Amino acid sequence: MNVNAPLVPGPKWTRKPQARPDEVLEAALDVFAANGFAATRMDDIAKAAGLSKAAIYLYFPSKDDVFKALVEQRIGVVQSHFDAAAKDQKHDPLAGLQRAIRLWANSFHDLRLAALPRIILAEALRFPELADFYHRTVIERTQASLIELFQAGIDKGLFRPVEPLVAARALMSPLMFEILRRQAFPAHIPPLSMDELVDSIFDLFLKGLAMPEVENHSGVAP
Amino acid sequence: MNVNAPLVPGPKWTRKPQARPDEVLEAALDVFAANGFAATRMDDIAKAAGLSKAAIYLYFPSKDDVFKALVEQRIGVVQSHFDAAAKDQKHDPLAGLQRAIRLWANSFHDLRLAALPRIILAEALRFPELADFYHRTVIERTQASLIELFQAGIDKGLFRPVEPLVAARALMSPLMFEILRRQAFPAHIPPLSMDELVDSIFDLFLKGLAMPEVENHSGVAP
Amino acid sequence: MNVNAPLVPGPKWTRKPQARPDEVLEAALDVFAANGFAATRMDDIAKAAGLSKAAIYLYFPSKDDVFKALVEQRIGVVQSHFDAAAKDQKHDPLAGLQRAIRLWANSFHDLRLAALPRIILAEALRFPELADFYHRTVIERTQASLIELFQAGIDKGLFRPVEPLVAARALMSPLMFEILRRQAFPAHIPPLSMDELVDSIFDLFLKGLAMPEVENHSGVAP
Amino acid sequence: MNVNAPLVPGPKWTRKPQARPDEVLEAALDVFAANGFAATRMDDIAKAAGLSKAAIYLYFPSKDDVFKALVEQRIGVVQSHFDAAAKDQKHDPLAGLQRAIRLWANSFHDLRLAALPRIILAEALRFPELADFYHRTVIERTQASLIELFQAGIDKGLFRPVEPLVAARALMSPLMFEILRRQAFPAHIPPLSMDELVDSIFDLFLKGLAMPEVENHSGVAP
DNA sequence: TATGAATGAGCCTTCATTCAT
DNA sequence: TATGAATGAAGGCTCATTCAT
Lengths: 222, 222, 222, 222
Description:
Chains A, B, C, D: GO terms for molecular function: DNA-binding transcription factor activity; transcription cis-regulatory region binding. The first copy, chain A, has helices spanning 20-35, 42-49, 53-59, 63-88, 93-106, 111-123, 128-155, 164-184, 194-207, 212-215. With 222 residues, chain A is an all-alpha fold. Chain A has one domain: Tetracycline Repressor, domain 2.
């Protein structure tokens, strides 16, 4: 199912029934990812799409709308993978967690997708509705999935009874941040691959930094 | 190019010995924090500083340089607090860590400061030199301090022998990310104060999510 | 840089295949001739061309390039006339010389053309490449043509064996200078028409100022 | 006698009695010669004069006036040399002519002086009064001197009875033009020194290009 | 006399957007 | 559906000029 199906006209940006709009967004993703929003010119998008600048306006009423449509179209994809993976395995929260995180991290192997959070971060001030949309669609749903898993783990006695939201952020942030870092500082290639980082973080996140002995048999507790 | 070079050439962005440059930077911080880099006009900064646009150019040769000067002025402060706190207490890595993190987090109580990392992450593509500068000045030094602390903790047998860089990122990212989140999604006020988050994250980071029993003597549970 | 590059890239200053660029140059000639380079604003050119300022940039990437294109377009014409006339008649150097000089002088009946050498003179410091271009395209070629003619005349025993380059300059300079003078001091209208001046100069140049008797058979005087 | 004597306040640009104005003009000559009028900034002049920009305005009410004062101060010098040399020797017009021309050419060994005619020619449109001043002070007086000499030569039977004005221009233009050329095309060093050129031109100017036999007694030659 | 500080006006250039075809 | 052509509205930067000190 084409997200841009003519049956469901986009809320704001009107489009014709052909595939063109998707081609435009495909091109726009390239250019926005490479240059960011402000630095991207309609000319760039047009050239990347093999169209004239004016033609873009047949499908999207403004540059803002191209951007919004793009985010709406793409952001969901990343999130849905995660969502599915997480919900599948509530019976084994730990495995579900690991699988979801790995899938989610993999989806950013397309670096252009990794650019979207960065751009949203940058442009959130100028596109509050878009930021809201992103928060609702991606962040909240991801958190919800994670929280469910954490709660299940806690209920099963696998996890310590921590605040699930804090845990969710503690787990996701290092990975999310790594994605931003790689874009902002491409010159400073990180020492670990993304996959390795995922596992390292996951392990550290589960076991903690502190030496277990220190925590455990001080059996002398009050 | 710059005919109005000051008598005492600054490191890169020239300035006169008076207080004006600082006033300009103060104003610039306001405006950049509110609008980001690209969307900020020199006129805005000038107006905020109570000066004419041309006057700004008496102190800084370009918009870029205003931004760089601002980063150099402000980021260093944040970073140095951290640096000092961390280095102070190498004998007690755990306390040092906690103190450094808290101080560092506190420095962002001025939300305008929190805008700087956001802008750098967002605009790094357009300002590679700036991103490099930030990486060198802030990230690398912060990491170095943290790594020292972690290594000291590991050497003392307080911490598990993890990769210090990964640990550093695991600890800092949730906090850094929280700072970004609060700017991008001000509508979604987080449930915890920054201080609470710091402590929660710190605790979770140390002890890990997993139930200790599960990890240590499997099966001996009640 | 120039996103609006034309389908057929011009030699240096890009242009669209239509007549517009020529119209712009026509207008630019008017304005540059009247105001010089520095004092001419893009708005002036645009207005003279019946276009908006931005439209000029569809055809020329900068003010400099408008000027360069104008020079390239117009200067060559003047020079080529001269060139052809000179080369045509190597068998009769004297007639060829006279014809070439006259044609060349006539081409400046369009006073706007006369402005170009003036502007180049004025702006040579700011446009060294342009000055070079002018020197190569116009001065050197004109000199080459003249030198050929002079050498032919010398070889044929018509001219005294002088340094051809010196002769070329001795002949051209008074005319070139007259063109500059008429622009700089329009209030001081010269007593002779350009055509008359050409003939007078030519005659004086050939026969010299000195009384022939004085030089030849001294003592035969009355 | 200082031209800028306080006794005779300049017609438009007021000045204080010290030597400062002359120092400013000295500096201005450097900068105008190097950059032309439009491209010279008051800052440049100030820096060259070792003063602040504002101080310049104590002596000259505007950039235009600095330029005017400079031209008025300097242009006369060149001309007066010429003038004197020419008038001295009316009894021997040929020697007077040669001496005057040589002196005049020598005065441009200071290349900054050579810049003045160039700038006037270039900027005459923007400074009509100045152009008039130059014409009256320099051109007309130089021409008058030359014409006197020529007329004397003609009267004495040394020169052919040509139009003295035309002759004056025929003689001066190649030299004047050479001065302009050297500024505009410094890359194309001329093959002759200025002194050599003066003599060559002078010789050619006197004897003419044509073979004497051809002109005088056709066919009677050996 | 001298200047540091400041500015108004202006100019080149860019770019999202429009429209006739 | 598509585009070539055009533009209004900025925005960064410059510079001659002013003025309080």
